[in-house]
C-alpha cells in the first residue's frame, strides 16, 4: 500500500512538470529559453515517471515475484541513465547549432559568446 | 593487455546488470553467466582501443564510481529539484532576464568538463551553449541573471549554482 502511494505521488509530480514544460514552450520568447522549459523540465518529469515504474517493479519483487519484474526495474533504470546523458548532449547540440547559425538570444542582457566570435 | 581486461570486466558487469533475475545462481542462470563471459571477451577484443583511448585508468578506481553515484543522488538531485521549481515559477509568471555568460571552471580533463557541462545542462535555468577548448571555460545561457552581475567578465561557480559546489565534486570524481 505504501508502494501504491509512492507511485501515485511520483506520477503526479512527473505529469505536473511535463505539463509545465509544455506551457513553457508556449510562453517563452526565444529558442534558448524554450530549450530550458522543453528539455530540462520534461526530463525532471520523466525521471519521476520512470521512478514510479522502478518502485512498482521493486514492490512486486518484494512480494516474491522475481524474474520479469526485476528485469523491468533494472531496464527502466538503464533507460533513465541513457535519458539523462542523451538529453544533456542533445540540448547542448541544439543550443550550439542555434548560436552558430546566427540565432542570437533575444531578449538578452549579455552575450559573451557573441563577443568572442566577433 | 590492461585495456583488454578493463574493457572485458566492464562489459561483463553491464551484461550482468542487464540479465539480472534470469536464474538461481545469485540472480543469474548458469547459461547467462557463461554466455556473458564469452560475449564480453569478444566485445573487449573489438572495442578496447575506443574504450581506453586516453591510456589513463583513473576511472577504474571503484571509489570514483561510488562518489559519482553519491554526487548524482544528493547534491545534483537537490540542485536540480530547486532549479526545476524556480523555472516552473518563471514559466507561470514570465519573469525572465536571460543572457549568455562565461563560466571559469578550473577543470583540466575532458571528462571533468563533460560532466560539468552535462550537469549544467540538466539543471534547468542554465544551459551550456559553447566551450572554450583551450582554457576549458564554458559559455552558459542563464534564464535569470542576477541584477547587476551581467557586467562581470567571467562568472565563478558561486554565481551559477545556488546550493552546492559542482566543480569541487567533479574534481574529486574525474581528476
Q: How are the strands of the largest sheet of chain B arranged?
A: 1-3-2
End-to-end Cα distance of chain A: 61 Å
Low-confidence stretches of chain B: none
Distance between the termini of chain B: 24 Å
Q: Uncertain spans of chain A, ≥5 residues at pLDDT below 50?
A: none
Helix content of chain B: 40-55%
Order of helices and strands of chain A: HHHH
Per DSSP E runs of 2 or more residues, the count of β-strands of chain B stands at: 3
Quaternary organisation of the protein chains: heterodimer
Number of helical segments with 4 or more residues of chain B: 7
- Rg of chain B, please? 21 Å
Q: Largest contact between protein chains?
A: A-B, 47 and 42 residues
Helix percentage range of chain A:
over 70%
Main features:
heterodimer; A: 118 residues; mainly alpha; 4 helices; B: 175 residues; 2 domains; elongated
Ordered list of secondary-structure elements with their pairings:
The complex is a heterodimer of chains A (about 120) and B (about 180).
Chain A: H1 2-27, H2 31-62, H3 68-100, H4 112-117
Helix pairs in contact in A: 1-2, 2-3
Chain B: H1 2-18, H2 30-51, H3 62-73, H4 75-93, E1 99-103, H5 110-122, E2 126-132, E3 137-142, H6 157-160, H7 166-174
Antiparallel strand pairs in B: 1-3, 2-3
Helix pairs in contact in B: 1-2, 3-4, 3-7, 5-7
Short description:
The complex is a heterodimer of chains A (about 120) and B (about 180). Chain A is an all-alpha fold and about 120 residues long. Chain A has one domain.
What does this structure look like?
The complex is a heterodimer of chains A (118) and B (175). Chain A is elongated, with a radius of gyration of 19 Å. Chain A is an all-alpha fold and 118 residues long. Chain A has helices spanning 2-27, 31-62, 68-100, 112-117. Helices cover 82% and strands 0% of the residues of chain A. Chain A has one domain (2-117). The longest helix of chain A is centred in the C-terminal third of the chain and has 33 residues, at 68-100. Chain A is built from 4 helices and no strands. Chain B has 175 residues and is mainly alpha-helical. Chain B is 55% helix and 10% strand. In chain B, a hairpin with a 4-residue loop joins β2 and β3. The A-B interface holds A 17, 20, 23-24, 27-30, 32-33, 35-37, 39-41, 43-44, 66-71, 74-75, 78, 84-85, 87-89, 91-92, 95-96, 99, 105, 107-114, 116 and B 17-18, 20-22, 27, 80-81, 83-84, 87-88, 91-92, 94, 96-102, 117-119, 121-125, 127-130, 132, 139, 141, 143, 145, 150-151, 154.
Amino acid at each position: 500500500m505504501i508502494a501504491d502511494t509512492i507511485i501515485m505521488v511520483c506520477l503526479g509530480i512527473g505529469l505536473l512538470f511535463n505539463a509545465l514544460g509544455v506551457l513553457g514552450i508556449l510562453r517563452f520568447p526565444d529558442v534558448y529559453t524554450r530549450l530550458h522549459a522543453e528539455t530540462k523540465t520534461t526530463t525532471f518529469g520523466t525521471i519521476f515517471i520512470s521512478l514510479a515504474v522502478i518502485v512498482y517493479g521493486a514492490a512486486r519483487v518484494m512480494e516474491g515475484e522475481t524474474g520479469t519484474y526485476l528485469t523491468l526495474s533494472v531496464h527502466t533504470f538503464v533507460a533513465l541513465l541513457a535519458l539523462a546523458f542523451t538529453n544533456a548532449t542533445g540540448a547542448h547540440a541544439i543550443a550550439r547549432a542555434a548560436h552558430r547559425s546566427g540565432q542570437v538570444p533575444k531578449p538578452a542582457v549579455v552575450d559573451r559568446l557573441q563577443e568572442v566570435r566577433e | 593487455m590492461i585495456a583488454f581486461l578493463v574493457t572485458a570486466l566492464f562489459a561483463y558487469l553491464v551484461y550482468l546488470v542487464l540479465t539480472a533475475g534470469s536464474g538461481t545462481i545469485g540472480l543469474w542462470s548458469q547459461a547467462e553467466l557463461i554466455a556473458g563471459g564469452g560475449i564480453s571477451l569478444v566485445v573487449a577484443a573489438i572495442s578496447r582501443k575506443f574504450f581506453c583511448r586516453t591510456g589513463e585508468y583513473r576511472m577504474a578506481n571503484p571509489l570514483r564510481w561510488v562518489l559519482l553515484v553519491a554526487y548524482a543522488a544528493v547534491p545534483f538531485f537537490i540542485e536540480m529539484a530547486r532549479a526545476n521549481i524556480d523555472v516552473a515559477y518563471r514559466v507561470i509568471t514570465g519573469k525572465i532576464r536571460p543572457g549568455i555568460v562565461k563560466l571559469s571552471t578550473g577543470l583540466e580533463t575532458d571528462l571533468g568538463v563533460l560532466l560539468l557541462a552535462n550537469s549544467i545542462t540538466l539543471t534547468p535555468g542554465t544551459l551550456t551553449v559553447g566551450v572554450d577548448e583551450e582554457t576549458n571555460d564554458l559559455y552558459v545561457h542563464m534564464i535569470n541573471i542576477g541584477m547587476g552581475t551581467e557586467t562581470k567578465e567571467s562568472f565563478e561557480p558561486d554565481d551559477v549554482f545556488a546550493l552546492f559546489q559542482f566543480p569541487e565534486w567533479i574534481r574529486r570524481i574525474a581528476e
